[in-house]
Design goal:
Length: about 550
């Protein structure tokens, strides 16, 4: 029955609002009709035409309500005749759709811009007032006042419930697009509740966008909005795991994406970007098309995405767009560059209680190894999370970072100076016995090779500057190995020796072993061997933390 009520509520409310011209009355009798159904249907059974049953019940309740109200006495005779007429049922996506009429009514120019979307989300999408408040990033009390004000204005101005004529559509369309996208956004990332997504809302928004696209095929922003929602919704099945947990974009199984929907969205993007200046929805759609075209997260064209965000920020200079641009720059130029931009947005009022901002900042701080600050950011995010999957994700991130912070450095977790020396001695013994890896030492290893290794690894993993103070810089390490060649087989066997050396050195903690493996593999393939001295970077020893450079590591 829940699905029936979700499907019929918007249609019922829109039809009643149009028939009686009173949105408050329509809301009240719609709720009463649904309450009556909840009582009667479990015993009497669901009627063959649930929508018709609800409509008839609601209309009768509305007439009863009006009969008791003397203000409406003169209107009652007309309404009584209307209430006895059969209710036509809309089929599929046929036009006009009564809900679409209500969308345009709620986007009427007589209403304040901030009231239009709020009213529609509350009435048509069925969101609660707190959910609408979260969608617009304002306090619940502020949103409640907006909704009451908008209803009053509709009633006093006698705004008709209808789809406007062709001459009125261009001015009214942006408000309708914004409302539809707000409904979709709530469906894509629910502001509260046990689930990350409310697929019924997302699919309803797409259905209404399709109607608009057919009604206005030359309106490129309507085309862009439909493209945007399709390209995002196509990833919906991969955004959650078996237990409803959040799966981030970089971890999603892209074979689960709806590639037919992606193809439709990409074709619409081309149409939305052709024939004149592009609007914000078309540019956002292009950004998501770039994401959807990448076969793997690592192959995402971040420079192109940043360029598109530059364009979008000129069209819509909002702090949320600036936040998304900063996140893209972090993937293009590194977390430090992204964090600098996020810090510039720290005083933006709209971002003060915005959960994605706190998460983005915490993630960049984590990637930079600044764990105490990252923990503080995620603690803030946890207080702002709306849905249960968001809270679970934030709690998991906090638990992992707190564990890491308690372990301090990788160097200390691996046993400090003594642990590094045991590991280096075990590795030296294994590689010198390996016929392939030992080729790197065909001229003979230095007498203090084990001590050099232990000092170098220790400094890279967060220990004291023992190598730099005794032997030199990273360039000295590379010069020692220059000319030995970059041989994949030798590198891989060296890594195998390292893994065995960890066992021989009694390093058993799986988390420590994993990080050490990633570090050694990365260093072997990226810093140790250079054919030419011109390739050598005379810089400091690369630093590695718990989060380090695993993405770059060859494992």
């Amino acid at each position: 029955m829940g699905e029936v009520f979700r499907e019929e509520r918007g249609r019922l409310l829109a039809a009643l609002a149009r028939r009686f011209g009173d949105l408050d009355l329509a809301e009240e009798v719609t709720s009463e009709a649904i309450e009556t159904a909840l009582i009667r249907w479990p015993t009497d059974g669901v009627p063959p035409n649930p929508g018709g049953w609800l409509m008839t019940t609601a209309r009768r309740k509305a007439v009863d309500r009006l009969r008791r109200d003397q203000v409406y006495a003169a209107k009652l005779a007309i309404l009584q005749v209307e209430s006895d007429r059969p209710v036509p049922q809309a089929a599929g996506d046929e036009l006009p759709d009564e809900r679409l009429q209500l969308f345009f009514t709620c986007a009427h120019p007589a209403l304040a811009p901030e009231d239009r979307g709020a009213l529609t989300l509350r009435c048509l999408a069925g969101l609660t007032t707190p959910e609408v408040a979260r969608a617009f990033l304002v306090p619940t009390a502020t949103m409640a006042k907006r909704i009451v004000r908008a209803k009053k204005r509709l009633r006093e101005a006698r705004i008709p419930f209808r789809v406007p004529g062709p001459d009125e559509l261009p001015d009214r369309l942006p408000g309708v697009l914004q409302v539809i996208y707000s409904v979709f956004t709530e469906g894509y990332a629910a502001s509260s509740g046990p689930y990350l997504q409310r697929l019924d809302l997302a699919e309803e928004a797409i259905r209404l966008a399709r109607i608009l696209h057919r009604l206005l095929p030359d309106a490129r922003e309507a085309t862009g909005l439909l493209a945007l929602m399709l390209l995002i919704h196509a990833r919906g099945d991969a955004r959650t795991g078996p237990d409803g947990e959040i799966v981030l974009l970089e971890d999603q199984d892209r074979s689960r994406w709806d590639h037919v929907m992606i193809a439709e969205g990409r074709a619409l993007v081309v149409a939305a970007l052709t024939g004149g200046p592009s609007g914000p929805y078309a540019v956002q759609a292009a950004i998501n098309a770039v994401h959807d075209e990448a076969p793997r997260f690592a192959s995402t064209d971040w420079p192109q995405i940043v360029q598109l965000y530059d364009v979008l920020l000129e069209l819509d200079p909002s702090p949320v767009i600036a936040l998304n641009r900063a996140a893209a720059i972090a993937f293009r130029d590194g977390p430090e560059a992204g964090l600098a931009l996020l810090d510039e947005l720290a005083t933006e009022p709209r971002l003060q209680d915005y959960h994605p901002y706190a998460v983005a900042r915490g993630d960049l701080l984590r990637r930079l190894g600044r764990l105490p600050e990252a923990i503080t950011a995620y603690e803030c995010a946890l207080t702002l999370a709306g849905s249960e999957p968001e809270r679970v994700h934030d709690r998991d991130q906090l638990a992992e970072m707190r564990q890491t912070a308690d372990m301090e450095t990788v160097y200390e977790a691996a046993g400090g100076a003594e642990g590094m020396l045991r590991l280096a001695a075990a590795w030296h013994e294994l590689v010198m016995a390996d016929p392939v890896v030992s080729h790197a030492f065909h001229g003979g290893a230095k007498p203090d090779h084990t001590e050099r290794l232990a000092a170098y690894w220790g400094e890279a993993l967060g220990g004291p500057s023992a190598y730099t103070s005794t032997y030199g810089t990273e360039a000295e390490v590379q010069r020692l190995h220059a000319g030995n060649g970059e041989h994949d087989e030798m590198n891989r066997r060296a890594i195998d020796c390292f893994d065995q050396a960890m066992t021989n050195a009694d390093l058993t903690d799986p988390r420590v072993r994993g990080v050490l493996h990633d570090y050694f593999a990365w260093a072997t393939f990226n810093t140790m061997y250079r054919h030419r001295t011109d390739d050598i970077d005379d810089g400091p020893i690369p630093q590695w933390s718990w989060d380090g450079r695993q993405d770059a590591a060859e494992s």
